[in-house]
Design goal:
- The chain is α+β, with helices and mostly antiparallel strands.
- The protein is about 40% helix and about 25% strand.
- It contains 8 helices and 14 strands.
- Strands 1, 2, 3, 4, 9 and 10 form a 6-stranded antiparallel sheet that branches. Strands 5-6-7-8 form a 4-stranded antiparallel sheet.
- A hairpin with a 2-residue loop joins strand 5 (about 140-145) and strand 6 (about 145-150).
- It is flat, with a radius of gyration of 25 Å.
């Protein structure tokens, strides 16, 4: 075979491969762009939802205490409204389709959390249908001998004595110094109670969602993504919402896989401050010596929030 003929054959083989590779690269770029856009939308939705849960008593200027509960469905409804509006899926059928890609929503109250997700139910015609419900609150409770402790995210602890049948409210420091509890590591117990109860609730709801999503034609296996421990601790330091958004096609074989955490800032305090130094946005700890009493332009509760706003970590205090 002549050299020119071999070159033509080689090009005929190579060009389709190059074309397919280029298509895959463009599809990957498009998927990455969509994922980033949806991440921003999901973050906004959880923050809107968290704020909406508290509107009623925030307007009255009251604090959050034992007698004043959040309105979880008000928060969930606002979350779904913001999500569907920003994704241009505002019809009833489009909103129902969006829910198929949300395996679980967690609403954090001051003493526990609610789980919202898909369940199988029987309609008036006797048919099995998929619907979404808010499940009863799971409390952050733990039993030590005769004492049942319910931890509050603001640091309080309610202790119920099953023998005396009396219930008292303590600060976390007071509870740690009670003679009957002094030998127990309450901080570790609280962290474990929150982590364990959340994991059980998520596993149960995601398993249920997988079954129902497959029945509705979604060929994707939902799972609980790994959440950074510091993010989780942040989330459970305030009333708020955790939402998972997965499985939506992004083009080609790519699928959406996101989660977002949004707090109400009832109990949170801002620990990080934003400044502009030499034309560069930097985020510092509140006691950074570089600032010399300068008022910050903005405050953040986490460095992740600051990074999303384009702020770089200060090289002096290293937040």
């Amino acid at each position: 075979m002549k050299l020119t003929n071999m070159a033509i054959v080689f090009l005929l083989i190579l060009l389709p491969i190059i074309g397919i590779g280029d298509m895959k690269f463009k599809a990957h770029q498009q998927a990455a762009s969509l994922q980033k856009r949806y991440d921003v939308i999901l973050e906004k939705a959880v923050h809107d939802g968290a704020a909406a849960m508290l509107n009623d008593y925030l307007k009255r200027g009251e604090g959050l205490d034992e007698t004043l509960k959040v309105n979880p469905m008000q928060g969930i409804d606002q979350f779904l409204e913001t999500l569907s509006l920003n994704m241009n899926r505002e019809s009833k059928s489009q909103k129902e389709e969006l829910l198929l890609y949300i395996p679980c929503i967690i609403v954090i109250d001051y003493d526990g959390f609610y789980t919202y997700g898909a369940v199988s139910a029987t309609n008036s015609s006797g048919q099995q249908v998929t619907t979404h419900v808010l499940k009863p609150k799971t409390l952050f409770s733990y039993r030590i001998n005769n004492q049942i402790l319910t931890f509050h995210i603001n640091g309080d602890v309610v202790i119920y004595d099953s023998v005396k049948q009396e219930q008292l409210l303590y600060t976390f420091e007071e509870a740690q110094h009670l003679p009957e509890l002094a030998a127990f590591p309450l901080s570790e117990i609280k962290a474990k109670v929150i982590a364990d109860t959340l994991e059980r609730a998520l596993n149960q709801q995601v398993n249920t969602h997988n079954t129902l999503a497959h029945q509705n034609g979604i060929a994707y296996t939902f799972y609980i993504p790994q959440i950074d421990e510091s993010e989780l601790q942040n989330a459970f330091s305030d009333v708020g919402i955790i939402a998972f958004f997965q499985g939506m096609p992004l083009g080609g074989s790519e699928r959406l896989n996101l989660y977002a955490l949004g707090g109400s800032r009832i109990f949170k305090r801002s620990y990080y401050e934003g400044f502009v130094r030499n034309g560069v946005r930097v985020v510092c700890r509140s006691n950074c010596i570089e600032n010399n009493g300068i008022e910050p332009l903005v405050v953040f509760h986490t460095t992740r929030e600051a990074a999303k706003e384009g702020y770089f970590p200060c090289q002096t205090c290293k937040p």
